[in-house]
Amino acid sequence: MKYFAIFWVMLSFSISLLAETRDPYPEPNAQEVIVVGVEEFAALPNYADKPAQMKNVISEPGTDNLIVNDMSGMLYRVDSTGSATTYLEVADPKWGTGFGESWREVGLHSVALNPDFSQEGEPGYGKLYTWMDASIGDSVADYPSAAAEPSHHSVLFEWTANDVHSAQYDGGMPREVLRIEQPFPNHNASAMAFNPLVSTGDYDYGLLYLAVGDGGGAGDQYNASQNLSLPHGKILLIDPLGDNSANGNYGIPANNPFIGETNTLPEIYAYGLRNLQQFAWDSETGALIVTDLGQAAVEEINLVTAGDNLGWNHWEGSFAFPGNPEGKSWRNILDGVDDTQVRSDPSIRYPIAEYDHRDPLGHTGASGTAVTGLAVVRDSGITELEGYILFGDLVSGEVFAVPADKQHLYNGQSENRRVLFDDGSGEAKTLLQIVQEARVEQGLEPPPRMDLRFASGADNQVYLLNKYDGIIRRIVAP
User: 18, 40, 134, 278: least CB-packed within 10 angstroms?
Assistant: First the structure.
């Protein structure tokens, strides 16, 4: 727990310094408002006497079910009626994963099911993946960090169910695929996903997109995100069923953009990320969109293609991030971002949308501002959101929208819309208001922040998660 204590001190210091940053976007964000409906869909049970710490929701191939992960180490299966059952307790010591206590940014981050999960006879049948933080113990990481005293490891495990129709996971011990040493207890394991749009025979069918944060601390002080010999601050693209990686436990896709380059990991698909939160693919254009957390001033949403440099830690959003490339220090945050250097490096893939830390919609009185969630709305039956990219703020629970069809026109701020919700009361509310009201109805204290996550399922519906009332909600027509 000593690293957690250190991190809290660092986090508190960073928040106080954020107040001194310059404001790259002095005009308020999202002045246009879209109102949609929201309804309760399912409820997850408490775990260890606290509400489910929901992080991600995915569709189970071949069914109408959803799989939801709790950062505390639980996987739940939710059927089309909203009935939730425990599928797998990753944190159970019998699995030998080294899973420790879940805390803030440490825990079970993501789950992914092979697209052939339900296809008997296929190599991917029954295979699911968990991307999580684990204690170091006697384990040796495939990729070390630069830290003299690392915090923990991020580990990708493969689990193989014998019968995918079984109510609970019925397979054996997990197989370790990849292990990365982490210097700090934040910005570590992150999102992962298989491209849901591709079919058998397509290039990236069965390939796993795996996001790794910059390792934490502040300012990417080891300059890992721009170092192509390290996995930190990257999107990796691997074949989990292959074996031509350095450790022999996964495959390197032949068309990865950095194959054959000196001192460069062939797993890298894109780089220059701080702490990617979510993947989403546009079913109409095929575009891959991600949300990436900012530090000093700017939260961003990015289009990503193979080989892209998203800029961090030399750029934060559209703005230069000041500091010494040889080693960042906390004093760099005092200057926020350099608003005299805007999109001036043509080698960088700049955001398609962004907002800043001083915007009133990013603050609730609770600490911090952090982009979260992601969904591209197509064929959902919700006219008001059709053709929009949805993203949100983790802390305030605000949801924003930008049109998906004109991504190349965006300069960062001007066309963000605010999304509010009618829960049947006839009143447009924020999600935080709705969760606070739900907590009061449960006889509990209303939370000061939202801890919002969301994603879309195979049914094109957008499911909304939080860490305070255990309720999965979904967006509906107003």
Answer: 40
Cα–Cα dist 441/436, whole Å: 9
d(CA 66, CA 363): 31
Which residues, 6+ apart, have CB-to-CB distance to 306 below 8 Å?
255, 256, 257, 269, 270
- 115, 61 contact by CB (below 8 A): yes
By the 10 Å C-beta count (0-12 exposed, 13-18 middle, 19+ buried), 431 is classed as buried
Amino acid at site 337: V
Note if the pTM is more than 0.90. Answer: yes
pLDDT digits (tens, 9 = 90+) for 17-51: 333 446 777 777 777 899 999 999 999 999 988 89
Task: Determine what percent of the chain is predicted with pLDDT higher than 90.
Answer: 72
Token code pair at residue 267: 């797993």
CA dihedral 358, 362, 368, 371 (to 10 degrees): -110
The C-alpha atoms of residue 475 and residue 465 are separated, in whole angstroms, by 11
Would you state the structure tokens that stand for residue 468, as one six-digit string?
């305070």
Report residue 119's pLDDT band, with 50, 70 and 90 as the boundaries. Answer: very high
Judged by phi (left if over 0) then psi (alpha if -120 to 50, else beta), residue 218 lies in: beta
Give ∠ CA 117-121-125 in degrees, rounded to 5. Answer: 20
Confidence of residue 360 (pLDDT cuts 50, 70, 90): confident
Could you identify the residue written with the tokens 């298989």?
194
Going by DSSP bridges, is the β-strand pair 417-422/32-43 parallel, antiparallel, or unpaired?
parallel
Q: Cα–Cα distances in Å, from 452 out to 45, 149, 432?
A: 18, 32, 9
Could you tell me the domains of the chain?
2-476 (2.120.10.30)
